[in-house]
Structure formats: C-alpha cells, structure tokens
C-alpha cells in the first residue's frame, strides 16, 4: 500500500534545542494514526512541519506521494487541520464562521451544505448561536467542521481533547471514529491522553524527546505475546546475570530500581518463575503491564512524568 504520509529522518533544531531528532514514520490511507508523546516531546513541532508552518532543519516529508517542499499548495488543499485550540470569530455564529472559512478555501457552499457539516459535528441545533457562548468542546467540534469544510482526504488533529470535560472527550472520540469509519478520512491525532488513543487508533507512534521509540499497529503492539511482565526479586543483579545465560535472554530488559522486564506471553511466566526459584532467587512480585499507559511509561522518560499522563 502506498503511504499517505511518509517522513524520513526529520530534524528540527531551535538554536541548541533539538526538538525533533531523526524522526521517521509512515501513515497509510484510512489509518487513525496516534501520535503519542509527553508534553514537550516534539509532537506539535512535527505536526507544524507536516503543515509547512515551520521548516525542517533537515529530512524529507511527502504527502500523497508528493514532496511537501515542491508541491505545498497542491498538498495542503487536501489537508484539514486543527492545531491546539481553533481560531474562530467569537462574535459570529457557527454557520457564519463556517461560511467564511469555506470562502477562504475557495468554495461557496449553500446553507444546506453548511448545516450538514454542522450536523456531522453535532452543532446543527446551535448553528445560529454566537461562538462566544459555546463551551470549549463545542468550539473544538466547530474547529473540526471548519477543517472539513473543503472535504480533505487527511485530517490532522493536534491535542483535540485539551481542556475538555469527560463528556467532551467522549464526543471527540466518537467524532474521530466517525471521520474514519463513515467518511473514509485518514486521521492523524496527537495526544498525551493515552487511553483515548488506545480506543481510536489503528496504528501509532510513540516519541520521546523528539525521537521515535516505537511504531506499529495498536493490535500488534498490545497482543498477549507482547505483554510486559515486571518482576521484582531480592537479588536483581544476580537474577539478571543468571537470565542472561539462559533461554530467557532474548526477552529480557532491565527496568528501573533493579526490576526485571520480560516481553513475552503471560502463559510462559510460571516456567520463568520456577527457574528463578530453582536458582535460589527470591521473588517479591510479578505483574503484567499491557495497558497503553504502562507501555508508554516504559518507553519514555520514566516515573517522574507519570502525573503528565493522567487525565
């Protein structure tokens, strides 16, 4: 399948700060592609480069099989985006906002067509209401209607659930799924709300400090054979040395505070535990960590950032 987005060795430096560091990833048609990272990991910088709002220091970006630098205007006509909070005319109605942005895109839809757009995002009943009276969630949904007014093939949403209450987050999740399943759009959505990405994404990338940590299908990354088993023992150093000389070596990682991490199917845990006991290693605890949040934390900068991932 031909990629819809292909990024190769992307770098962005701001003076001495490397915000994006040799980043490569691929998005395919019909993906809901989760772009995951802590606040400050480089997500928004990467998205701004995808939209040619800022220039890369180096690297290649192609969309729809075309080089972004050479075919910028042709590409952007096929892209709709909401970057953080949408910029809207607060003292105009929703339908007037939509009409203005449609004209900026070079189209002049009638009221019926505009109402269909507002119906799609659940705002038809408030079409003539002033945007200043809208909740943050309603403004986010109107921003998506604006991004869709020219019927783009690719929709890019940067932290679309920021500032939303639980109902607003659920509404945004359902809207993203509708864009993909009913409208056939390819959606790239960045977030640090990990459980939300787990529920909507088909594929994802996790970045940390501007670098790719892992990329792949969500179902593949979280299948039982890829469970991360965390083991605490009384003698972590000795246990590690023993396991490095055993059949378990290919599955082992060293975790924080001497914890052992084994990536394998849970049904193999009893055999591993038995071997450790036979070798005289005292077991303190064994737990499976197969949620997206646990996986994210294991790949990024560690426990000091846990509070950033809660919602």
List keywords for this structure.
311 residues; alpha/beta; Rossmann fold; Alpha-Beta Plaits; 2 domains; 6-stranded mixed sheet; 4-stranded antiparallel sheet; 12 helices; 14 strands; 34% helix; ABC_transporter-like_CS; ABC_transporter-like_ATP-bd
What can you tell me about this protein's structure?
With 311 residues, the protein is of the alpha/beta class. The protein folds into two domains: 5-217, 3-Layer(aba) Sandwich (Rossmann fold), CATH 3.40.50.300; 224-289, 2-Layer Sandwich (Alpha-Beta Plaits). Helix content is 34%, strand content 27%. The protein has helices spanning 43-50, 72-76, 94-104, 111-120, 136-148, 166-181, 194-200, 218-221, 236-244, 269-278, 292-299, 306-309; strands spanning 5-14, 17-27, 32-36, 58-63, 66-67, 79-83, 154-158, 186-191, 203-208, 211-217, 228-233, 252-254, 260-263, 283-289. Strands 6-7-8-3-9-10 form a six-stranded mixed β-sheet, sandwiched between helices. A four-stranded antiparallel β-sheet has the order 2-1-4-5, covered by helices on one side. Helix 5 packs parallel to helix 6 (166-181). The protein is elongated, with a radius of gyration of 23 Å. Belongs to the ABC transporter superfamily. Keywords: ATP-binding, Nucleotide-binding, Transport. It holds the Pfam family ABC_tran.
CATH architecture annotation of the largest domain: 3-Layer(aba) Sandwich
Tell me about the largest β-sheet.
Answer: 6 strands, mixed
CATH fold call of the largest domain: Rossmann fold
Give the mean pLDDT: 86
Number of strands: 14
Number of helices: 12
Quick one: CATH superfamily of the largest domain?
P-loop containing nucleotide triphosphate hydrolases
C-alpha end-to-end distance: 36 Å
Work out the strand percent.
25-35%
